[in-house]
Design a protein that fits this description.
With about 250 residues, the protein is of the alpha/beta class. The chain has a single domain (about 5-245), classed as Rossmann fold. It has helices spanning about 15-25, 35-45, 70-80, 105-130, 155-175, 205-215, 225-235, and strands at about 5-10, 30-35, 55-60, 85-90, 135-140, 180-185, 190, 205, 220-225. It binds NADP nicotinamide-adenine-dinucleotide phosphate.
Length: about 250
């Protein structure tokens, strides 16, 4: 196997765990984020793995909020490899924000990163894959795309928007032999928000990455992670009565 994957937001959490899991499976890797010292450390860790002997690891600083720069950065990173097979649009942020509580900028920032930045990443990947007539785009959305959550209006909106973008892209890109996988994580222990321990069915980033890889390798259109219990709960999320939130503290 000589597959190459690019992962955005590889400096921590899910992106970092996914890079290590792909490293264990012998992928050449292109890594992006803003904290480049972390990407350099990850590169060294990856190249020290026996499975990565003879493999290529490159990184590039990329702020996905700068959507004008994203296509140029993606082209530059893709150009460092003989061929790229998979692009994972993972970079994202989350923050509790109240509607009408003076947090417009925080909400807009989240939309810029999670939706506009993710769309710019997928678009750049699709342009490259269209020319190749082959490729696989993986978008890290969220189960929060399915259910409205108080104090998460902007975050839910970004993930609902990104999920829809991925679903529509999947139909559009199929004829170019480009596969699209939408990943819907539940709660994964990372630094994305404080006190992750309070959330139910929390899994480590390593477990999430292992499960995500199974969906990616099978090129599934949707992957719920962790599968238990969220696969069974997923159909209920879209129809959850809003009154239930009276009993849930966020
Ligand atoms: N953890 C969960 O429970 C959970 C659940 C559902 C979905 N997700 C999604 O999973 C993805 C990864 O989140 P995580 O939990 O692994 O969080 P994390 O540990 O905070 O990692 C976020 C990653 O995104 C990068 N990033 C953030 N803003 C960026 C920007 N403007 N430009 C470029 N990179 C940026 C960060 O890199 P730099 O700061 O170095 O740039 C970091 O590598 C996100 O899309 C998140 O919404 C997470």
């Amino acid at each position: 196997m000589n597959q190459t994957a690019i992962i955005t937001g590889a400096s921590s959490g899910i992106g970092l765990a996914l890079a290590l899991e792909m490293g264990r499976q012998g992928y050449n890797l292109g890594l992006t984020a803003r904290r480049t010292e972390r990407l350099q450390a990850l590169k060294e860790q990856l190249l020290a793995m026996p499975s990565m002997a003879g493999k290529q690891v490159e990184w590039l600083a990329m702020d996905v909020q700068d959507t004008a720069q994203v296509p140029k950065s993606m082209t530059a990173l893709i150009g460092k490899f003989a061929q790229v097979d998979v692009v994972v649009a993972n970079a994202g942020a989350n923050q509790l924000t109240g509607v009408g509580k003076g947090q417009l900028q925080e909400q807009l920032d989240m939309i810029q990163t999670n939706l506009l930045g993710a769309v710019a990443t997928v678009d750049a990947a699709a342009e490259y894959f269209r020319a190749r007539k082959a490729g696989h785009i993986v978008g890290i959305s969220s189960l929060a795309s399915l259910t409205p959550i108080p104090k998460q209006a902007a975050y839910c909106a970004t993930k609902a928007g990104f999920s829809m973008y991925l679903d529509a892209s999947a139909i559009e890109l199929k004829r170019y032999n480009i596969h699209v996988t939408k990943i819907l994580p539940g709660f994964v222990k990372t630094d994305i928000v404080d006190n992750m321990e309070q959330f139910p069915f929390l899994v480590s980033a390593e477990q999430a990455a292992r499960e995500m890889m199974q969906h990616i390798r099978k090129r599934r259109s949707t992957g719920v992670v962790p599968g238990y219990p969220w696969r069974a709960v997923k159909p209920l999320l879209a129809n959850m009565p809003s009154g239930l939130w009276r009993y849930i503290k966020i």
